[in-house]
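Question: Send over one sample?
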Amino acid sequence: MALTRDFRETVRARIQADSAFRAALLSEAVELLLTGDISTGKSILRDYVNATIGFEALSTETGLPTKSLMRMLSKTGNPRADNLFNVIAALQKHQGIQLSVSTAA
């Protein structure tokens, strides 16, 4: 099911207005990637980038070309781990948070 433009705009507005939601969304994207749901994790990261830093600024932060960033976070993109972790690091820095991994008890 394709998302409607209204829904995407609603999510974008929420991301821009609510810092706790932004942090939770970034955390969720990383958790999805770590659990193997790569497609959904990339999709959330793409929406997050579009609503926050933008691909041009992310390109400056990571040293990766804008088009490569867009391609790697697309449905068919296949990012290398080092590039994906550079993106996550730049997004954490931009958001002013530090995500951490812990084991489930």
Q: What stands out?
A: The mean pLDDT is 91.
